[in-house]
Amino acid sequence: MRVLAAMSGGVDSAVAAARAVAAGHDVVGVHLALSRTRDAIRSGSRGCCSKEDSADAARAADVLGIPYYVWDLSEEFTRDVVDDFVAAYAAGETPNPCLRCNEKIKFAAVLDRALALGFDAVCTGHYARLDPSVPELRRSADPDKDQSYVLAVLCAGQLRHAMFPVGDTPKPEIRAEAQRLGLRVAGKPDSHDICFIPTGDTQGFLRERLGSRPGSVVDDASGEVLGTHDGVHEFTVGQRKGLGVDRPAADGRPRYVLGIEPVEGTVRVGPDSALDVRSISAHSPVWTSGTAPEAPFDCVAQVRAHGGTAAAEVTPSADGITVALAEPLRGVAPGQAVALYRPSDEGDLVLGSATIAGTG
Questions:
Q1: Is 7 marked as a binding-site residue?
Q2: How confident is the model at residue 238 (pLDDT cuts 50, 70, 90)?
Q3: How many C-beta atoms surround the C-beta of residue 41 within 10 A?
Q4: How far apart are CA 14 and CA 58, in angstroms?
Q5: pLDDT score recorded for residue 9
Q6: Is 44 annotated as a binding residue?
Q7: pLDDT for residue 34 is more than 90
Q8: Does the pLDDT of residue 39 top 70, yes or no?
Q9: Is residue 88 marked as binding?
Q10: What gap in Å lies between CA 25 and CA 4, rounded to an integer?
Q11: How far is CA 281 from the centre of its chain?
Q12: Where in the cell is the protein located (predicted)?
């Protein structure tokens, strides 16, 4: 097969490309230039898409003996990921930009271009297991690195042209393999921050783009105004610190963000017990099998990239899905994704995902 290997400059994508080469595929490496300010040099594990990352990817491609190119997708990335991220926060939602990047960039813009150029598949360093012939997407063998949640937005057609070669191997073994192959990125730190906010200051990033939008912080139970804020984009459901409340609760316990009303500019706060969610409504479902289920079904629902899982019954409808949780989850916010899994001996099977609209 002709395989386009997306090489971020990290160890996972480098080993994924190496494994594609070892499997006998005709591999071409490509680095995605997503940032409009690539002159910045990354520090530690912050950021991505810098000159350092591009150089690391180029050196890995040279060691592997494969052609290497840089594709500038900064315009698409800004429109579909960064602008979407800002708009979601302005609407009182909590988006996941990595999920949106996989959906809109790596397996839409990149895959479409790859297929047009005659490639059969796009290979990445994501930690997930995939049988593209079915297609079936499963959790990775390394539960600490599993990235199936952020891949649950991919449809059947995209999965048929995807490859995740490192998903069956724990991360320490991937680093050891990179060392044996002579890849300099073997010890490179993982990136843990939002890639387009290398400083890690999400509130500052949003403040620059949305400015000040004053509103009130109110007690959810009584409606009493407890403080003011400069914009709902500074908050997310489940947040405890930085609420702008100038006096303690009557019971002396911490308050948490329970809900955000962007039109009124109101942030509702209350006790942690009020964060319990037992039902989720979600829109825009994507089914990895390519076929939407018609009847309710049992599964495991996951609401965060790591953790936040519970047994659930899912009821499909014309407008989306309703997820009834067997036990409550906390910190579930509109704008996040709910991923749906079916447990199995071969590893949890990803059934699909949808975007959370509301909770109950």
A1: yes
A2: very high
A3: 11
A4: 10
A5: 93
A6: no
A7: no
A8: no
A9: no
A10: 10
A11: 19
A12: Cytoplasm
Q: For this structure, is 48 an active site residue?
A: no
- Which of these is catalytic: 48, 49, 101, 123? 101
Q: For the whole model, what pTM was predicted?
A: 0.92
Q: Which domains does the chain have, with CATH numbers?
A: 2-125+165-187 (3.40.50.620), 212-272 (2.30.30.280), 275-359 (2.40.30.10)
Query: Is residue 228 classed exposed, middle or buried when 0-12, 13-18 and 19+ CB atoms within 10 A define those classes?
Result: middle
pLDDT the model gives residue 155: 94
Pairing of strands 320-329, 256-261: unpaired
Ligand-binding site membership of 168 (annotated): no
| Tokens coding 327 | 């036990």
Task: Note if 195 is an active site residue.
Answer: yes
198-212 residue pLDDT tens: 778 888 999 999 999
Q: Binding residue per annotation — 12?
A: yes
Does the pLDDT value for residue 251 go beyond 60?
A: yes
Question: Does position 272 have pLDDT exceeding 80, yes or no?
Answer: yes
30: left (phi over 0), alpha (psi -120 to 50) or beta: beta
| 148 neighbors 302 (Cβ within 8 angstroms) | no
Q: Which of 48, 49, 123, 195 is catalytic?
A: 195
Residue 163 marked as a ligand binder: no
Question: Which two three-digit tokens encode residue 183?
Answer: 């890849």
Once rounded to an integer, what is the mean pLDDT over residues 251-267? Answer: 92
